[in-house]
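To illustrate the input format used throughout this study, we show a single complete record. The first block contains the structure-token representation of the backbone; no residue identities are included at this stage. The design step must infer an amino acid for every position from geometry alone.
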């Protein structure tokens, strides 16, 4: 589920009238004035209207009624629009996917609420408000402390006898004698903390003070180095985030290449590379073969007709005229051998006789040649037919094999079977070009160049920290021990100050009720939303919550532990375990933020609901805001995050600011 648009008219904290488009991701909503826009309250009034008119308080002026509309995409992927007149009635509409026109669902408040819960997928109001609306009023430090809860008194000892408290009714207020110039309210003096005993050996205690002061300086040096390391780690995180911006594209490229390589190729199936072109020109090849065979058959028929028209060739030895001419020629030749003159002239007749015989012989040879030529034409037709079939087989044979391989009926069905590989190849080429373009972007190249430099600086700083020693106590722990030691010295020098101690005070002096542990309620609501029990939710949340909390507190806390009811114990980096409510208020707030961000991250894997952040970061350390902004931006990759804040730095981190 995510919000698509918010439209307002005369609503407090917004422009007098406007429509604000909301896309997915991490969006920063800038209010028009110094007053923060009540986006969470307006969303709750629209989505969980009770019909009592309390939402009229959201109107900017009382002279004119306020109106608001919220467009959202439900868990069923259908677009809905909730319209309401603040303090009055409203209606729920649904966008028809076919006609793209809105259709009225209901104008009854109860019916609309039931439809939003059942069909659209909204959780109960308490779940949505306590898990997906993050407001400053929800921070533990800003909520009233639990009345009547016992304060933590571990390690503390009361200085009053039972029933003799200085402020008990009927007892006069006790006044402790003070040394001249040392009034309890004087600057630099504080009431002694219960549980701090006067020092038994003042010189030894003062020597210990000097050691602690040296240790404090040393710890601060290490803390400053660690602060630099954390700052560099933050920069490394930003650079790695930029470099990881190509991870999604690389994964898509890898999957596309795998699909491309998995597709069969003509070579892998024993087919020529140009099988697609062969299949496309197969009809033309078949037509050429049929045409050539038809022409050959026509020529063969003509040759057969000519052969039938030729008479049978009579052998020369059976030609009577040939032998007569030869005989006449021989006789004339023999007659020329006689001595008589006139007989010799007869010998000249052998010339025409032999010539006639030669003509008959030549004619016989011509007839033989014609017959032989016709017989050879038949062989030529056979050779031509064989050549035509061989050429056709060389062109069409792979196509017929492809028909068998792909189990299709016609050659035109072959190209579609191989087109997917071509399409995947084009997609791979496009993704490669996009990846090269992203990696050659100046910001990407600058990040790739800076990252090893920053890592080298971190290694140098870590080496310096290692040189300082394997174990360094937390600065505040040393400060607390130093303060207690100085107080014990002061008590030893002024015993009368011990009477000014107040039972129930904490170690730092000053009575304070522990803050409420926010975890049981949050974990219980998360369990209800995920339809599981609290122990299962704890197992799901623990590791990620520790990562968020450690990052926000600069690694002062190493672990978070929950019992079966969700009550929280935190473990400091030095190994000390303590209830989360006994932490400083600001760090309880950081734990609360860590837990809420963890719940949204884990729940969004199953149920996507928008996270509405409304001035919950106001009052936190300015140095932590960029880190919190990056955390919210990370959540924006999992679900829609709408952050109402005027902070310009957070707007730069967002996927897009929206001016309200």
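Output of the design step:
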């Amino acid at each position: 589920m995510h919000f698509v648009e918010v439209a307002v008219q005369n609503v407090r904290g917004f422009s007098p009238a406007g429509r604000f488009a909301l896309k997915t991701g991490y969006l920063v909503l800038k209010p028009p004035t110094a007053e923060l826009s009540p986006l969470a309250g307006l969303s709750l009034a629209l989505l969980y209207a009770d019909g009592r008119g309390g939402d009229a308080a959201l109107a900017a002026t009382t002279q004119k009624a306020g109106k608001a509309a919220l467009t959202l995409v439900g868990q069923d992927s259908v677009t809905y629009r909730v319209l309401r007149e603040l303090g009055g009635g409203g209606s729920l509409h649904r966008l028809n996917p076919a006609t793209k026109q809105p259709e009225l669902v209901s104008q009854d408040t109860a019916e609309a609420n039931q439809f939003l819960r059942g069909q659209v997928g909204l959780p109960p109001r308490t779940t949505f408000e306590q898990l997906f609306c993050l407001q400053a009023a929800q921070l533990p430090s800003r909520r009233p402390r639990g009345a009547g809860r016992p304060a933590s008194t571990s390690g503390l000892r009361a200085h009053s006898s039972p029933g003799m408290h200085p402020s008990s009714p009927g007892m006069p207020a006790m006044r402790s004698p003070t040394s001249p110039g040392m009034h309890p309210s004087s600057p630099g003096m504080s009431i002694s903390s219960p549980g701090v005993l006067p020092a038994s050996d003042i010189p030894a205690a003062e020597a210990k003070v000097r050691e602690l002061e040296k240790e404090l300086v040393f710890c601060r040096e290490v803390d400053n180095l660690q602060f630099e390391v954390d700052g560099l780690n933050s920069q490394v995180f930003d650079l790695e985030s930029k470099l990881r911006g190509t991870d999604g594209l690389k994964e898509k490229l890898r999957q596309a290449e795998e699909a491309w390589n998995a597709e069969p190729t003509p070579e892998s199936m024993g087919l020529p590379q140009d099988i697609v072109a062969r299949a496309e020109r197969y009809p033309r090849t078949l037509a050429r073969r049929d045409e050539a065979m038809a022409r050959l058959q026509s020529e063969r028929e003509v040759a057969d007709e000519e052969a039938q028209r030729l008479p049978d060739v009579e052998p020369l030895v059976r030609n009577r005229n040939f032998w007569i001419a030869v005989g006449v020629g021989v006789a004339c030749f023999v007659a020329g051998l006689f001595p008589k003159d006139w007989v010799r002239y007869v010998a000249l007749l052998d010339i025409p006789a032999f010539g006639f015989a030669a003509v008959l012989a030549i004619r016989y040879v011509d007839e033989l040649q014609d017959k032989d030529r016709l017989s050879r034409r038949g062989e030529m037709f056979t050779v031509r037919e064989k050549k035509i079939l061989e050429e056709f087989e060389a062109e069409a044979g792979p196509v017929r094999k492809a028909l068998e391989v792909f189990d299709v009926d016609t050659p035109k069905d072959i190209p579609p079977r191989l087109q997917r590989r071509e399409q995947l190849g084009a997609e791979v080429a496009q993704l490669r070009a996009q990846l090269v373009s992203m990696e050659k972007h100046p910001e990407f190249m600058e990040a790739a160049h800076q990252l090893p430099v920053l890592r080298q600086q971190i290694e140098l700083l870590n080496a310096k920290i290692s040189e300082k020693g394997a174990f360094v106590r937390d600065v505040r722990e040393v400060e607390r021990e130093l303060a207690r030691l100085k107080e014990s010295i002061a008590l030893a020098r002024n015993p009368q100050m011990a009477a000014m101690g107040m039972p129930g005070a904490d170690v730092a002096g000053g009575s304070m009720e522990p803050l409420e542990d926010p975890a049981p309620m949050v974990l219980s609501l998360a369990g209800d939303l995920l339809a599981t029990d609290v122990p299962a939710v704890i197992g799901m949340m623990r590791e990620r919550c520790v990562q968020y909390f450690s990052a926000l507190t600069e690694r002062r806390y190493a672990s978070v532990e929950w019992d079966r009811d969700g009550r929280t114990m935190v473990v400091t980096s030095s190994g000390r375990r303590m209830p989360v409510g006994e932490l400083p208020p600001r760090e309880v707030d950081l734990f609360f933020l860590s837990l809420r961000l963890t719940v949204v991250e884990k729940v969004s894997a199953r149920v996507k609901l928008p996270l509405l952040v409304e001035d919950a970061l106001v009052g936190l350390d300015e140095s932590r805001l960029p880190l919190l902004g990056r955390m919210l931006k990370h959540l924006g990759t999992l679900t829609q995050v709408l952050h109402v804040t005027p902070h310009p730095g957070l707007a730069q981190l967002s996927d897009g600011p929206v001016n309200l």
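Structural context for interpreting the output: The two ends are 22 Å apart (CA to CA). DSSP finds 17 helices and 14 strands in the chain.
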